[in-house]
Amino acid sequence: MRPEQKNVSLWGVAAIVAPLALLLAIGLWVYRTEAASARDKAEQQLAAIAHLKVDRLVAWQRERLDDAAALGADALWLGQTARFLATADARLAGQLRNRLRTVGAPGQYVEVLLVDAAGRVRLSTNGDSEPPGYAAALALALGRRHPVFSDLFVTPHCRSPRVALIAPFFVPNQRTGLPLGAVVLISDAVQCFQSWLQPWGPPGATGEILLIRRDGSPLLLAESLPRLSVPLPSQMSGRHSDSLAAAAMQGRIGAIRGRDQQGVDSLAVIVPVPGTEWRVIAKDAAAHVFAAWRFRAALLLLVFALLAGGFGGLCLFMQQYNKKVRYMALYDAESRLRHSMERHRSTVQAIDDGIIAADGQGRIELINPVAEALTGWRQEEALGRPLEEVFCLVEETTGELVRGSIAQVLGSGTAGERKGYHLLRARDGRERAVTGSVAPIHDDRNTPLGIVLAFRDQTEERQAQRLMQARLFLREYAFTHTLEEFFLRALKEVAALMESPLVFCRCPEQTVSSVVMRRPPSSRTTAFAQAGNGWVTVSGIDWMDAWFDRLGTGQPPVVDDPGVSAGSASAVAPWWIKGKVLAVPVLRAGKVLALFAVAEKSGHYSPQEHETLTRIAEFTWRLVERKQVEEELLASERQYRTLYRSMMDAFVVTDMHGHIRQCNDAYCAMLGYDREELRRMRVSDVTPAQWLAYEDEQVRNQLMHGGCSGLYEKEYRRKDGTLIPVELRTFLLIDNDGQPEGMSAVVRDISERKRAEQEEAKLLARLSQSQKMESVGQLAGGVAHDFNNMLSVILGYAELALRKMEVPEPLHGYLEEIVKAGRRSSEITRQLLAFARQQTIAPRILDLNETVEGMLKMLRRLIGEDVVLRWVPTPDLWPIRMDPTQVDQLLANLCVNARDAIAGVGNITIETGRATFDQAYCAGRSGVMPGDFVLLAVSDNGSGIERDLLDKIFEPFFTTKDVGRGTGLGLATVYGIVKQNEGFINVYSEPGVGTTFRIYLPRQIGTVEDKPEIEAITAMPTGQGQTVLVVEDEEAMLTLNRSMLEYLGYTVLTAGTPGEALRLAKAHGASIELLVVDVIMPEMNGRELSKEIETLCPRVKTLFTSGYTANVIAHRAVLDKGVRFMTKPFSTGELARKVWETLHG
Question: Where are the membrane-spanning stretches (predicted)?
Fold first, then answer.
């Protein structure tokens, strides 16, 4: 378009737009003015209504305050009220109630209340006694000492909203003290506010009055007035920032616009009520307020549209007429120009080079057939397109687009010629090397009107040059890099040479395989292999595996486009092009060694590119084969050297006479010599003399016959003189003539293994000892029950006989010996149970220092005057959990053993301490557990214990004392008690020096428990005829228990089985006060029977007896809480005390 024509067009547009803009501005001004006027009018009306309602509300409040002031000014009434509140006189109550009814008589108040200073209702005109909803206002009035209006509230018997005035009153003529009370004037809010809260306007009008607090809570809504039975809403919606409630909460006063409680857009005026937190909101729906204004705005918009349409139509008609005149003139000029262009086009079509002509804007006007073939654009498609889009040149090295050359020619008006090669990127993505030139087209005033571009295809020449450069580069690269580096670089060179983003190489032996890509793979990397008439899909690079068999038979790999064939099926070649993958094999004697493939080129591959790929593939593979041979040699040498130097086992090479020729670092480190020292030595120099003959025999018998010896052991002498055990295997070295030239040996230091074997042997011995002691313990627990029953019968009857026999009788002494022997047997059984960790105990948390100190006097009497007992406690000792009687047993047994080991005068030391063991310390010590422990050590300076006896001292019945001086159960009992309490014990002894026993007991977290108070019993307690049920499956024990209990004064019922006991319990019921039951019985155990009888006799108490509890009433020999238990055998006195404790416990 010429400049003159362009200016005329712009003026025409301005002539149309300017009047329309002016008309639009006037319309907007009128629209905004009308809107502001409508809003101002509505706000003025709402403000007048709101102030009217506030004035009426203030007048109503003033009337109530006057009533309250009248009462407060009545001295007589105040005096009577003061006396009534002080005396609650009934006569005064009647007078005051009448006066209150007089105040509410005109119907202004629904109820009048008199409350005292504590807020209690003392008088009411209707009888209400509880403040229903004005409690907060009452407290505020009494606190502020002046009348206060309450918020609206409802009462339980009336759901109509009410409001109260609370007026405090004082002692007449004394307003400085506390209020005597207050008068509560309660009004019906609906009756008071209905007249001025009703919506204004005709029926259906949207105007409304709301009364709310400053915090947004409603007092009364006009819409709630007719529904007196419905509670008022508790909260207006203040969740939205544009709501009226939110504006009131923010303290805004005056006209606002927002959403009401129903979410309707409204215009409102907020006016505060003086002296209160109340706000009056007069609101009207915005739709109603602006209804008339919107109707006028619609009419204005219609008028504007009609005016704009008429004016625009006139302007459009004038414009179309001017265009028609101008286009007729242009048509004539174009016809003449078309004939001239046709002659030039015929000339251009016959030229062998590509020709492209473009106008001054760089848009194509002409493209000849050669240019069409090179660019991929047909003339009808290219016409009018930018020259840079059709003739797309890229730099060969960087791949970047070449820009600016055509614009430079158009700007300067001078011809230009390109030096060297550039790549022309065709429409289908293929790139060709081209050379060319560009010249401008001038008009008669030498002004550039366009350009002509001439170019020629130089692909073949450039490809041959690039192939030569690639081969030279790869040959040089192969000399200075590894095989992997060379192979990866070669694939990159192939990708660049073939102009393909993807290049593959696959080898059957997996010698080298790789993929090189210049961008992420697309859907075209999915490959297909033809199989008969169908297609088999193979994913990733693995699809190339399917090509080896097909290439070997001459069948082509087919990829991507199954509908296009590059030749007939009969003309099979060792390569094939189809779609966008080109693959060629590397053949040796008809065998495929490798497969090279390129893919993802923008266009189809040509036969010339196949030839290029074949030549570069053959050249690359020859270099690969050479690099493989070189790297295999280097790798073999490096592997041997690394293996030799880094072997964890020692390695040595000698000649046939034993002179050391080579050795690795491990061999030097093992013997303590450096390598140079060892090379001057023989193997016999580091081998002890006793091993020389043995090693010569190994070499002679095995090495010389089989070339390799078996695995054998010997010793080496280190440089520092120490001997180390080793394990080795020797090999014979043969020279090229097959003659032995030396020996090599792999040597391993087995010192750690030997130590581990010794440690394992010690552990096995300890395990065997532990199992033996466990077996003895299980045997002791198994026989304890029956043995104790028999002892009980023997001791019981012997004791009963003694009690009924006179002392001078000859049999009295015999019976006493029987009792003594029975008690010694009982003590042996008790010690066996302690060793077996089945002794019944009642542990508690105790302070070991305190417990030991309580035993010192007894221990000093036990060891005698010749032995000094030293006590060394550690302060702030951790508590432990243990039966105190077991501590007595430990110390008594250890001190007696220490006393017996001292010949004459000596010392025994008892000490306590704290110890903590970690996992590392416990790892190599059997029986030691990690954690915190309390130490109890007993030491003596006696004769000590021989080392070979230390492993046996805890075995039951083992003793070094003379016959008759010990049972051999003392230390066994100590061992069992320590293990039962999850501790461990260590012994340190040296003959002639002394012995130390160190006992470690686990620390207990908790508070030390007080000793239980035991009531002292001076004489054997007897019964008062209480009924005792005795259950025992042993008939002899049953008869004995009956005899003992009857002797003690009890009424006895006996049962031999649990079933018989249950029948007796049902028959006698509540008369049974005590159940004495054996723990181990057939049918059911003692605990189960006790529970059954307790359901029949709720008052019954239970005393369990047994020689072995078997975890029925104890867990791991620890008595359950609250269980009374007596161990068999027992005497008549022990039975008497235990029965008495159970009945009175």
Answer: 12-31, 298-319
Q: Of 130-144, 185-199, 398-412, 996-1010, where does mean pLDDT reach its minimum? A: 398-412
Q: Which CATH superfamily is domain 1027-1144 in?
A: Response regulator (3.40.50.2300)
pLDDT surpasses 70 at 1072:
yes
DSSP summary character for residue 682: B
Burial of 944 (0-12, 13-18, 19+ CB in 10 A): middle
Q: Tokens 């979410």 — which residue?
A: 263
Q: Which segment, 268-277, 744-753, 797-806, 953-962, is predicted with the most confidence on average?
A: 744-753
Q: 1037: buried, middle or exposed (CB in 10 Å: 19+, 13-18, 0-12)? A: buried
Q: In the chain, what are the domain boundaries?
A: 74-191, 354-457, 463-638, 647-749, 848-1007, 1027-1144
The answer to whether 1133 and 1140 have CB atoms below 8 angstroms apart is: no
Q: Six-digit token pair at 469?
A: 């450069």
Structure-block tokens of residue 1097 = 């006799």
**In the block, which residue shows the tokens 């997996």?**
510
CATH numeric code, 848-1007: 3.30.565.10
Question: Residues 6 or more apart from 106 whose CB is under 8 A from it?
Answer: none
User: CATH fold of 354-457, please?
Assistant: Beta-Lactamase (3.30.450)
Strand duo 591-599 + 581-588: pairing: antiparallel
223 Cβ partners below 8 Å, 6+ apart? 208
Single-letter amino acid code for the residue at 1075 = L
Question: Secondary structure of 133-173 in the HEC alphabet?
Answer: CCHHHHHHHHHHCCCEECCCEEECCEEEEEEEEEEEECECC
Both tokens of 597, joined, read 């493939």
CATH code for residues 647-749 = 3.30.450.20
* pLDDT above 70: residue 541: no
The single-letter code of the amino acid at 85 is L
- Give the model's confidence band at 1112: pLDDT under 50 very low, under 70 low, under 90 confident, else very high: very low
SS3 45: helix
Q: To which H or E segment does residue 959 belong? A: none
Edge-to-edge strands of the sheet including 1027-1031? 1051-1055, 1027-1031, 1072-1078, 1101-1106, 1125-1127
Per-residue model confidence as pLDDT tens digits over 189-229: 777 776 666 666 655 567 777 777 766 555 544 444 443 33
Q: Are 168 and 192 in contact (CB under 8 A)?
A: no
Q: How many Cα neighbours within 13 Å face the side chain of 685?
A: 14
Per residue in 362-421, pLDDT tens? 888 888 888 888 888 888 888 888 888 888 888 777 767 776 656 565 555 555 555 556
Report the candidate in 1085, 1132, 1077 with the shortest Cα–Cα distance to residue 1105.
1077
Average pLDDT taken over every residue of the chain: 75
User: Residue 620 belongs to what H/E stretch?
Assistant: helix 607-646
**How far apart are the C-alpha atoms of 625 and 618, rounded to whole Å?**
11
CA 896 to centroid of chain Cα atoms: 60
Give the model's pLDDT for residue 725: 94
CB atoms within 10 A of CB 974: 27
Cβ neighbour number for residue 427 with a 10 Å cutoff: 17
Class of domain 74-191: alpha beta
Amino acid making up residue 1027: T
Measured distance CA(348)–CA(366) in Å, rounded:
9
Instruction: Determine the residue type at 461.
Output: E
**Which residues are registered as beta bridge partners of 591?**
588
Contacts of 5 (CB under 8 A, 6+ apart): 326
Write out the E strands in 368-457.
392-394, 416-417, 422-425, 431-442, 448-457
CATH topology identical between 463-638 and 848-1007: no
In the three-class reduction of DSSP (H, G, I as helix; E, B as strand; rest coil), residue 218 is classed as strand
Least confident segment among 175-184, 536-545, 770-779? 536-545
* Domain 463-638: homologous superfamily in CATH: GAF domain (3.30.450.40)
